[in-house]
Design brief:
Largest sheet: 3 strands, antiparallel
CATH superfamily of the largest domain: Head domain of nucleotide exchange factor GrpE
Strand content: 15-25%
Structural class: alpha+beta
Number of domains: 2
Shape: elongated
CATH topology of the largest domain: Nucleotide Exchange Factor Grpe, Chain A, domain 2
Order of helices and strands: HHHEEEEEE
CATH architecture of the largest domain: Roll
Strand order of the largest sheet: 1-4-5
Number of helices: 3
Number of strands: 6
C-alpha cells in the first residue's frame, strides 16, 4: 500500500470513529432524553389530574354561585309578590264597595251607613296602596294591550284613533305586574 492509500485509510477510520462517537453521543442524549420524558410523563399525569380537578372545582364553584343568585332572585320575587293571591281575591270586594258607594241614600240611617262604608273603603284602598297596588289609568289614555282589554270599539268625536273612550271595569297592577287589565271601550 502506498502512503496515500494509508492516509486515506486512516482518514476513513478517523471519520468512522467520529461517526461512532456522534452516534454514541446521540444515543446517550436520547437515553437522557428518554429518562427526562419518562420523568415528565410521570409528572404530566399528575399535572393533568391537578388541572382537571382545578377545572372541576371552578365549575362547581360557578354552579354554586349561579344557584345562590337564582335562589336570591326567586326569594326576592316571592317577597315582592307575596300578597298577589290575597289582593286578587279582594279586587271583587273593592268593585262591590265602589258599586255600593254609587247608591244615593234617601234616609238619615242610610246616609250614616254609607259614610261608614266609605271609611272602610278608604281604609281598604290605603292598605292596598301600601302593598303596592295601583289603579291602571284609562280614560283619555292610548290603548295598551298589556294594560287594557278592549271590550268594545266605538266611533266618537273628540277622541283620537286607538284612544280609550270609557272604562267599564278598573284594572290593577301590583308593583310592575298586571293583576287585572282594565276593560275599556276604544275609539276606532
Amino acid at each position: 500500500m502506498t502512503e496515500k492509500d494509508t492516509n486515506t485509510l486512516e482518514d476513513e477510520l478517523k471519520a468512522e470513529d467520529t461517526e461512532q462517537e456522534a452516534v454514541d453521543t446521540d444515543q446517550n442524549e436520547a437515553s437522557a432524553s428518554d429518562e427526562t420524558e419518562v420523568v415528565e410523563a410521570e409528572e404530566n399525569p399528575l399535572e393533568a389530574q391537578v388541572a382537571e380537578l382545578n377545572n372541576r372545582m371552578l365549575r362547581v364553584q360557578a354552579d354554586y354561585d349561579n344557584f345562590r343568585r337564582r335562589s336570591r332572585e326567586e326569594k326576592e320575587a316571592a317577597a315582592k309578590y307575596r300578597s298577589q293571591a290575597l289582593i286578587e281575591g279582594l279586587l271583587p270586594v273593592v268593585d262591590n264597595f265602589e258599586r255600593a258607594l254609587l247608591v244615593k241614600p234617601e234616609s238619615e240611617e242610610a246616609q250614616s251607613l254609607l259614610s261608614g262604608m266609605e271609611m272602610v273603603y278608604r281604609q281598604l284602598k290605603d292598605t292596598l296602596k301600601n302593598e303596592g297596588v295601583e289603579v291602571i289609568e284609562t280614560t283619555g289614555q292610548s290603548f295598551d294591550p298589556h294594560l287594557h282589554q278592549a271590550v268594545m270599539q266605538v266611533s266618537e268625536d273628540g277622541f283620537e284613533s286607538n284612544q280609550i273612550v270609557e272604562e267599564l271595569q278598573k284594572g290593577y297592577k301590583l308593583k310592575d305586574r298586571v293583576l287585572r287589565p282594565s276593560m275599556v271601550k276604544v275609539n276606532a
